[in-house]
Amino acid sequence: MTTTPKSLRLHIAFFGRRNVGKSSLLNALTRQQVSIVSPIAGTTTDPVEKPMELLPLGPVLFIDTAGIDDVGELGSLRVEKTRQVLERTDVAVLVTEAGKWGEFEEEIFAELTARKTPMVIVFNKIDAAQPDAALAAKFAEQKIPVVKTSAAKGDGILDLREALLAAAPADFIDNPAILGDLVGPGEMAVLVVPIDKEAPKGRLILPQVQAIRDLLDSDAYCLVTKERELRSALDRLKAPPKLVVTDSQAFLKVAADTPREVPMTSFSILMSRFKGDLLAQVRGALAIENLRAGDRVLIAEACSHHPIGEDIGRVKIPRWLTQYTGVKLNFKNMQGRDFPKDLADYKLVIHCGACMWNRREMLSRILKCQQAGVPITNYGLTIAYSLGIFERALQLFPAALEFYRSAERKVRTA
Questions:
Q1: In terms of CB atoms within 10 Å, which end of the chain has fewer, N or C?
Q2: pLDDT tens digits for 88-109?
Q3: Which of 193-207, 254-268, 311-325 is predicted least confidently?
Q4: What is the pTM of this model?
Q5: From 3.40.50.11420, 3.40.50.720, 1.10.3470.10, 3.40.50.300, which CATH number describes the 180-268 domain?
Q6: What is the topology classification, in CATH, of domain 6-173?
Q7: Pairing mode, if any, of strands 119-124 and 91-97?
Q8: How far apart are CA 198 and CA 154, in angstroms?
Q9: What is d(CA 193, CA 387) in angstroms, rounded to the nearest whole number?
Q10: In what order do the strands lie in the sheet with 264-266?
């Protein structure tokens, strides 16, 4: 489990003021010196991450953050880093102590509640003072677990562990499939994996590796080929595969070589379902029809690789989208966790599949776009739409396909 990617780990983040014992609690919980502990306020600056195995839950990522009450110019930057962690938090641990619950705690509490993020409230340093009974009762009424701890003495750490296990979202425990449920035990999936200049030397990219593992976990067969050998590979099969999955960049070639009766989609579209909200991003793709000359389009990428050659986000998608719309658009590229605070100037956001992120962070970004009234879609959906194979790429997803067809009918009858 130590090699499990961060994107597949449950993200458990600790929030609270400076010196309430966040770092001490994390060290006690992990039984390691993960974070530096000091009586000096503001010791933790950037978020500190620690991948662990929390049985019986499995692989998790603990995140220690700077105090939400940090001050000064540097303090403001630290608080901003802490707020960024909210985007990817699956379970929040809000740490306080007796007599300290106030404006800062209420602000984080309200933010977590608005995001519907499961949380555990910890009253630390109970060896010094007990929390207000009325405050604890208030949380109990809201069915929010409260744990009393003394990190210095190790008291309540097992109770905190149990509370974290109970707070884990059901969809994480149920371990949703990437494509195994679409293929089924004993069935065959063909994965088309182009090897170009941006393919990592000596290995496959993460979505391809995860798809292979998911098929094996689902007791399905898996055939991996490059796009040039696809037709030959299909001819050698005694029975047609249940599904063909391609890198979005090879959509046209794969669509031409895959029989119409065989469903076909892309890794990126599968990631939209696995990491994001497929229906919301299908709705976003329909906004391509509304793009006009000069409109700003944001292309966002979760990872920060060095682009070379015919980069998909900087070269290919802008080219295909420009060819489809027939107008000159204004493209802006952003990488990693950089994202505009104000999206008002953009007409469309096109996002990668977010294979390097956990699902919570991608859903947070989708929600941010929805709140701003800006449509968001993803790479694979954009490419399929621009190349005229959108409906075929959605064949496996009845709800998304029906939504698209319904939108098409409205346009034709308008």
A1: C
A2: 999 999 999 988 898 889 999 9
A3: 193-207
A4: 0.77
A5: 3.40.50.11420
A6: Rossmann fold (3.40.50)
A7: parallel
A8: 49
A9: 19
A10: 221-225, 188-192, 243-246, 264-266
